[in-house]
Amino acid sequence: MYRLLLVDDEADTREALSSYFPWQEVGFQIIGQCGNGKEALNFIQNHDKIDVILTDIKMPVMSGLELAEVIHEQKHNIHVIFLSSYREFEYAQKALRYRVNNYIVKPAKYQVLLDVFAGLRDELEAAKHALDQPPSGTSNEGLIITQIKAYIQNQYKDANLEDAAKQVYLNANYLSYLFKQKTGQNFTDYLIQVKMKVAMRLIQENQYKTYEISEMVGYSNAKNFTRTFKSYYGKTPSECKNG
Q: What does the pLDDT look like over 68-92, one tens digit per residue?
């Protein structure tokens, strides 16, 4: 069982969440309830292991966003899921940099809770087998970036962020943030870089037509490929062939 902490300033909401949803059937055990972020931090400090926090965003004393920020800064290995009213939904998205796994719009519907927490359970299970203990001096984050770069190098034709995230059992938005933080480059820009270098090599071999190279590096539309290639190299594929 994965250990779950509920955080919401409305006692009725906490009680409804804890009693009407079959948490244990999905693989979670509610180990506590808190009325705001500060109470949740105190709870974290006094308990050995918490796997997941389901928290409201707007609360007195300390908000869910502030709670997620502290958890992130203190490097707690805790997954955070937000509860949000509809008008706060865009605000919730901004918290992705704090490794918030998901956000659920209030009132939380049964099927949504089931989908989110079943997915999180599968992610937690898979993460147990994802990475071996890193060598001395190497961080897990460094290994993740190395693995993602290798994935792109090998699968550049069909590579995408969602697929990449599955390779390392992370939320796609968090992987995007982590990749940018660690490499200084967006995931998409790195993918394009790899595609264009492969395309240039194929052009220099002078064995393929432009539309064939376009398909080989994952562009179904040759015009889009040519436009991207020219933006990257300053020349069209034909100009590079003739040059």
A: 989 988 878 898 998 887 556 566 5
Say whether both 178 and 196 belong to one domain. Answer: no
156/211 same-domain check? no
**Rounded to 5 degrees, what are φ and ψ at 42?**
-65, -40
The phi and psi torsions of 29 (rounded to 5 degrees) equal -125, 125
In a domain, 93, yes or no: yes
DSSP 6: E
Any idea what DSSP says for residue 74? T
Report the C-alpha gap between 168 and 54 in whole angstroms.
23
CATH number, residue 59: 3.40.50.2300
Mean of all residue pLDDT scores within the chain: 86
* Helix 187-205 and helix 161-168, axial crossing angle in degrees, nearest 10: 110
Q: pLDDT digits over 164-203, tens only?
A: 998 888 888 889 989 998 999 999 999 999 999 999 988 9
